[in-house]
Amino acid sequence: MKYLLACCLLLTALAQTTRAREQSEESSPKFASKDSTKVQKSPTGALLRSLVLPGWGQLYNDQKIKAGIVIATQATLIGFRFYFHNQARQFEKGSPEYNFYLDRRNFMYWLMAGVVVLSMLDAYIDAHLYNFDTGPDLALRFGAWQDRGRPAGLVRVGLRASF
Questions:
Q1: Residues 2-30, buried b or exposed e (16+ Cβ, 10 A)?
Q2: What is the 3-state secondary structure (H, E, C) of 37-82?
Q3: DSSP 91-139
Q4: What's the pLDDT tens digit per position in 108-150?
């Protein structure tokens, strides 16, 4: 109980620090985008949001589809955890079936932790790349074309990137 209280206090303090940093960053002109339509997102704020509730960091970064995928994945893993726990309770402790379902339940815990870590990393990186310009000037084109003046059977394959 003391550990849980200490974690809550730590997260509250980090959230307050992040909120203060976000407010100072929003007032700073160096974080404004070229067209000033998007405000820079705080990577630490996104990371902490995803730590508290997986998918919240993605929502903070306006990635609604990713947030839905993360939330649905976590909910599915929680459902499987309860399923395997209830299946294990039907057998006598120490039996092979009991151990099988208990191992599956514990594996769900590991998968849930993995989803949290990946969600945190994704939110952190997306916040860093929030104002990244992906306009038509940044494109990668694959193509096959035929040169004029060459025989009809020859086709060139190329890769062209415009920056």
A1: eeeeeeeeeeeebeeebeeebeebeeeee
A2: CCECCCHHHHHHHHHHCCCHHHHHCCCHHHHHHHHHHHHHHHHHHH
A3: S-TTSHHHHHHHHHHHHHHHHHHHHHHHHHHHHHHHHHTTT---STTSE
A4: 999 999 999 999 999 999 998 888 766 655 555 555 555 566 6
Q: Name the DSSP letter for residue 163.
A: -
Beta bridge partners of 142: 159
Retrieve residue 152's tokens. Answer: 């009809």
What is the pTM assigned to this prediction?
Answer: 0.60
| d(C-alpha 156, C-alpha 139), whole Å | 20
Do residues 42 and 19 lie in contact, with contact meaning Cβ atoms separated by under 8 Å? no
